[in-house]
Design brief:
The protein is α+β, with helices and mostly antiparallel strands and 185 residues long. The protein folds into two domains: 45 residues; 126 residues, Immunoglobulin-like, CATH 2.60.40.420. It is built from one helix and eleven strands. Strands 1, 2, 3, 5, 8 and 11 form a six-stranded mixed β-sheet that branches. A three-stranded mixed β-sheet has the order 4-10-9, with no helix packed on it. Strand 1 and strand 2 form a beta hairpin. It is elongated. The termini are far apart. Bound molecules: dinuclear copper ion. The site of dinuclear copper ion has 8 residues, from loops.
């Protein structure tokens, strides 16, 4: 008589289901909690501005033209760094940024998907053709940091990296046009 205690059987199913949904619920809460925790305490967020740019001619004119690449200080004191990620280099190869000041980094790719991180910082983004990848950050310590491409982009991928030179207040000196280049050391 397998149908002798249908209610007991159903109760057992219900208990198992509740146990599973409790476990899954704990996992979901832990995952969301981790995302919120790292966002609030470590400034780790996904790069989220959706800003389109035509990859075919971004190097010819406008924001990512060659003369406009690198670091520029605007008249209001804000610091913006513009970099092109292309097979197989970053342009410019060395980026000068100030220590202890907010910096906006803007990246664009004319060819394939690249990615980058700056060692020891919260900077980590993909660079997708057709979009501007934008990251806000602040560099705590002065010194040279490595910025490798971390998305396989072709045979020269492992050779694709740049140097980020974090300059102290005395070293970070904009020229007449507000541009700052790496110091020769
Ligand atoms: Cu660019 Cu890998």
């Amino acid at each position: 008589m397998s149908q002798a205690h249908p209610e007991a059987h159903e109760r057992r199913i219900l208990r198992t289901e509740l146990l599973w949904s409790f476990g899954v619920g704990v996992l979901i809460v832990a995952t969301l909690g981790m995302i919120v925790f790292t966002a609030v305490t470590r400034d780790i967020n996904p790069p989220s501005n959706v800003e389109r740019i035509d990859p075919k001619n971004l190097h010819l004119s406008g924001e990512f033209a060659e003369h406009n690449l690198g670091t520029a200080v605007a008249s209001d004191g804000s610091v913006v760094t513009r970099v092109i990620a292309t097979q197989f280099m970053f342009s410019p190869r060395c980026i000068a940024v100030p220590q202890g000041r907010p910096v906006t980094l803007r990246f664009a790719s004319p060819d394939v998907i690249h990615g980058l991180l700056i060692t020891g910082t919260n900077v980590n983004t993909m660079v997708i053709p057709g979009y501007v990848a934008q990251v806000h950050t602040e560099f705590a310590r002065s010194g040279d940091l490595l910025m490798p491409c971390h998305e396989y982009c072709g045979l020269g991928h492992s050779e694709m990296w740049a140097t980020v030179q974090v300059l102290s207040d005395q070293e970070f000196r904009p020229d007449g046009d507000g541009r700052v280049r790496c110091a020769q050391r």
